């Protein structure tokens, strides 16, 4: 690995970046938003499966890249909803991955994977057709060792706390098991209510029945629906949650009257509602989530701008979250106005916005965050979580907001082994960006050192009010 990777070629800037990097490289990892399965930590004896399962079939970044090059999901071992035959031999899946590993050159996934192979597993060979099986055997042998159990990796990575993302109707049994064990790792749930507040979500009526069961509140109308949601939020907070998480394609958040919301809710219990009605209700419920955040202090995260399941035939065969989601252009200034006028000035409200539409950074999001006290900007998300994506984000946002209205870094990953790599990319890119400000005379080295620490560690803790 090149020790100066992502640093500028200018000798003066590179020298400063090296110095700044040494001040942050060993800081603890703060992981306030991600999708690692809490089951990994609930069982102290949990072990990862084979390399194909660890790096391919569980990583939608990888499967998406392979699929766009004509490699069917069946060949990658992704199970189909219709139970049609798929490849089940992990060595064969790994070989196909290795045969095509060149397609990851220059991509964020290639950056992450190369560093994981080298630093975590000690792989010094390049992965290709000829080395595939040797590398498979090396990884397999190491996965059987105790130091590769999830709890040990958490400790090795120096993670301070890690937040998962959990359905509002999840019993949090795995989190309960973690809390009741003698392990000291901090694995915190995050309240994700999409399956119950989106009235057009698959199996919505069934999800409402489950909401009744887990909250012990008989949800028969809109009033009891709100009570059940408040009950679940309180339980999540009791279990250590610091935030909620919400996905919406278009952030149109105009509130409804209580009467109209009640009518739409009742309609939904009796059958499907039309697309326009669903969009209005879903936006209204995000306003209700903001109201509840004012009351209970949970930080509200909004992930906007993803057109879900764009490849409909693939979605029909394999279900959601298989790489068929695409960015769409967004409008925030008008759409967020009702919510921000109501809560954006409230001292107890905190809203962190993630976007897939980079064009909105300078045009709308940075100016909004540069005005409303409640609003912070999440780091580059998904398609933008890359070396160049982070650079663009910093250049587009900080002139308007400064770094202190951003939420630091969150890895947003399902893959536990990638945690330190993703944070390392952020830290390298940010210290290089700060070094550029120093050589331009915009800041001095003392300020750069303080800002480097803040961007690597402090901002995320402050944004999520996790000061422990």
- Looking at the overall shape, the CATH architecture of the largest domain is Alpha-Beta Barrel
In total, the number of domains comes to 2
Helicity level: 40-55%
Shape: globular
Quaternary organisation: single chain
Radius of gyration equals 23 Å
Strand % is 5-15%
Number of helices in the DSSP assignment: 20
Distance between the termini: 35 Å
CATH superfamily of the largest domain: Metal-dependent hydrolases
Please give a structural write-up.
This protein has helices spanning 11-24, 39-42, 51-57, 60-68, 90-99, 108-120, 132-143, 150-156, 173-180, 194-197, 204-215, 222-238, 258-270, 275-296, 312-318, 337-343, 360-369, 387-401, 419-439, 445-463, and strands at residues 29-31, 159-163, 166-167, 187-188, 191-192, 243-248, 299-304, 306-307, 326-327, 351-355, 375-377. It has 468 residues and is of the alpha/beta class. The chain folds into 2 domains: 11-48 and 147-463, TIM Barrel, CATH 3.20.20; 49-146, uronate isomerase, domain 2, chain A. Strand 10 (351-355), helix 17 (360-369) and strand 11 form a beta-alpha-beta unit. The longest helix is centred in the middle third of the chain and has 22 residues, at 275-296.
């Amino acid at each position: 690995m090149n020790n100066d990777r992502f640093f500028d070629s200018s000798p003066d800037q590179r020298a400063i970046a090296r110095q700044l990097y040494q001040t942050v490289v060993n800081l603890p990892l703060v992981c306030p938003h991600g999708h690692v399965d809490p089951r990994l930590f609930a069982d102290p004896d949990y072990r990862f499966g084979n390399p194909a399962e660890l790096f391919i079939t569980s990583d939608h970044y990888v499967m998406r890249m392979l699929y766009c090059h004509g490699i069917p999901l069946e060949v990658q071992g992704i199970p189909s909803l219709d139970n049609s035959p798929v490849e089940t031999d992990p060595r064969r899946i790994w070989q196909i991955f290795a045969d095509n590993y060149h397609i990851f050159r220059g991509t964020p996934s290639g950056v992450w994977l190369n560093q994981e192979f080298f630093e975590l597993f000690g792989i010094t060979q390049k992965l290709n057709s000829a080395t595939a099986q040797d590398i498979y055997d090396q990884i397999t042998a190491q996965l059987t060792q105790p130091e590769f159990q999830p709890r040990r990796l958490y400790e090795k990575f120096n993670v301070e706390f890690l937040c998962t993302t959990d359905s509002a109707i999840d019993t949090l049994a795995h989190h309960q098991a973690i809390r009741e064990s003698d392990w000291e790792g901090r694995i915190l749930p995050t309240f994700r209510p999409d399956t119950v507040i989106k009235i057009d979500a698959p199996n919505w009526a069934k999800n409402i029945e489950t909401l009744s069961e887990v909250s012990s509140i008989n949800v028969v109308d809109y009033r009891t629906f709100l009570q059940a949601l408040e009950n679940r939020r309180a339980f999540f907070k009791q279990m250590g949650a610091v935030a909620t998480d919400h996905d919406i394609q278009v952030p149109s958040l105009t509130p409804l009257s209580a009467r109209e919301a009640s009518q739409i809710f009742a309609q939904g219990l009796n059958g499907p509602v039309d697309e326009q009605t669903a969009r209005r209700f879903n936006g209204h419920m995000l306003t209700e989530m903001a109201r509840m955040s004012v009351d209970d202090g949970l930080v509200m995260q909004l992930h906007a701008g993803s057109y879900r399941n764009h490849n409909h035939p693939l979605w029909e065969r394999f279900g959601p979250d298989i790489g068929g989601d695409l960015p769409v252009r967004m409008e925030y200034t008008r759409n967020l106005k009702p919510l921000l006028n109501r809560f954006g000035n409230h001292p107890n409200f905190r809203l962190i916005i993630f976007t897939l539409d980079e064009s909105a950074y300078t045009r709308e999001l940075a100016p909004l965050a540069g005005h409303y006290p409640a609003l912070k900007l999440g780091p580059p998300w998904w398609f933008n979580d890359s070396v160049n994506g982070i650079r663009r984000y910093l250049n587009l946002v900080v002139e308007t907001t400064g770094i202190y209205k951003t939420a630091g870094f969150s890895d947003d990953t399902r893959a536990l082994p990638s945690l330190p790599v993703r944070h390392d990319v952020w830290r390298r890119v940010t210290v290089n960006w700060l070094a550029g400000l120093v050589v331009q005379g915009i800041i001095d080295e003392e300020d750069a050192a303080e800002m480097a620490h803040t961007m690597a560690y402090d901002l995320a803790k402050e944004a999520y009010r996790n000061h422990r």
